[in-house]
Specification:
The protein is α/β, with parallel strands linked by helices. It has 17 helices and eight strands. Strands 1-2-3-4-5-6-7-8 form an eight-stranded parallel barrel, surrounded by eight helices. The longest helix has 24 residues.
């Protein structure tokens, strides 16, 4: 039976000093005042290069949640994790395009470089991309609004209808986006590296879903190469998962899905309230948990046609997945089942799953310190706002320090 209580397994890879540092950071992140103040001030301090700011970030939150400033800097981190049978998902942590089309092309080349690097590493089966790294946010926003207002009945029909009605210059712009993503997926397919397409805010998600499904239709014929991310804190996503499976069955491709709860909850609720439309977020946490667990069960019962990543920090959801696998006699190393947690969080889940022989990884971002600030702020806010997250981390760290006699 799988358990997440063994702190010796969870923190074996951390020295005493690293464990104490993690304890200090989680204590700080337990304060919403500190986190909110930091989220408000830090981007400006980095932008204006306030002396000491970058050094402080590197020594604290950056080293806790990020693998390094460059791709090559992640190598010792990946090697350390591999000693404990934990794999790595590489994520180029720069969000949003810089310098327009030239910036999007540069991001595309960086994603391809990540794939080429991952293919040479024994413990890096996946890499992650954000579509906002290769496409203008405003174009996604316009397409999403048009898709939501479309009278067509399916995601792909809505998408095709919207593409047809774009302005000529926007059609050309979108064509370049599709070509960028094809280049990324071509290289991933060639080098046997999985591509996880991150979820975005609800007001740009529909075209992201459509283009990702389109890539699955091309590349997931015989193996899962492309994965879509489904945020189950949205009340419509369990149904979307089922519709995605139906589309995969009809088109005869393997559905690749990464199941998460989600990262934009507060932003989504505020925008819905400000703009006067119904919130896309689940009415309460039990509803979110129920849909997440139902999504896990749905995928695990259809592994011939679905490749699923259970990407969760929730102990019960991870336990449920292991129990379903055992009850259905699914091997722990089944190629269509993978578990994942963020680097720097929930080590008690990751390393105890690895100890039981499950496929499990850490999501490991990298990038220049000032460029990964948005990612770092979300991690801090997540630990501050998710009920019990920081307390649980601190309790386990304290238990391990006591076990070590510190």
């Amino acid at each position: 039976m799988t358990s997440f209580e063994n702190t010796e397994n969870a923190f074996a890879y951390k020295s005493d000093a690293e464990l104490k540092k993690a304890q200090m950071l989680f204590r700080l992140m337990g304060s919403q005042f500190i986190v909110k103040t930091g989220a408000r001030l830090l981007p400006g301090m980095m932008k204006f290069r306030i002396p000491g700011t970058e050094w402080l970030v590197k020594k604290t939150i950056f080293s806790q949640f990020v693998g390094g400033e460059t791709l090559e800097a992640t190598k010792p981190v990946a090697a350390l994790l591999a000693r404990y049978d934990v794999q790595v998902i590489l994520d180029y942590g720069v969000e949003g395009g810089h310098n327009g089309e030239a910036g999007f092309d540069a991001s595309t080349q960086e994603f391809i470089r990540v794939i080429e690097y991952a293919a040479q590493q024994p413990s890096v089966p996946f890499m992650s991309i954000k579509l906002t790294g290769i496409v203008r946010f405003g174009l996604l926003e316009k397409m999403d609004e048009a898709m939501k207002n479309s009278s067509e009945t399916t995601l792909m029909k809505k998408y095709l209808s919207v593409i047809e009605n774009l302005e000529p210059s926007e059609k050309e712009e979108w064509k370049r986006v599709v070509e960028r993503l094809r280049k990324i997926c071509d290289k991933a397919n060639e080098m046997h590296v999985g591509v996880l397409v991150d979820a975005e805010e609800t007001w740009i998600q529909d075209p992201v879903d459509a283009i990702t499904v389109m890539m699955m239709d091309v590349y997931n014929r015989h193996k899962a190469v492309v994965y879509n991310t489904i945020q189950l804190y949205r009340h419509d996503r369990l149904e979307f998962l089922k519709l995605s499976f139906q589309a995969a069955q009809e088109r005869n491709f393997i559905l690749g899905v990464k199941l998460v709860r989600g990262a934009y909850m507060e932003k989504e609720r505020l925008r819905a309230a400000d703009m006067g439309y119904p919130s896309p977020i689940q009415k309460d946490k039990p509803s979110c948990d129920a849909d997440y667990d139902a999504g896990v069960a749905f995928c695990l019962e259809r592994l011939k046609h679905i490749s699923v990543m259970v990407a969760s920090h929730n102990e019960q959801s991870n336990l449920l997945a292991t129990q379903i696998m055992d009850s259905l006699n699914i091997p722990h190393q089944h190629p269509h089942v993978h578990f994942s947690q963020l680097f720097g969080m929930s080590d008690h889940i990751t390393f105890n799953l690895a100890k039981k022989g499950f496929n499990v990884s850490k999501y490991l971002p990298f990038g220049p310190t000032r460029e990964v600030i948005p990612y770092l702020m979300r991690r801090a806010e997540e630990n501050s706002s998710v009920s019990g997250q920081t307390g649980r981390e601190l309790l386990l760290i304290k238990k391990e320090l006591k076990r070590r006699g510190i």
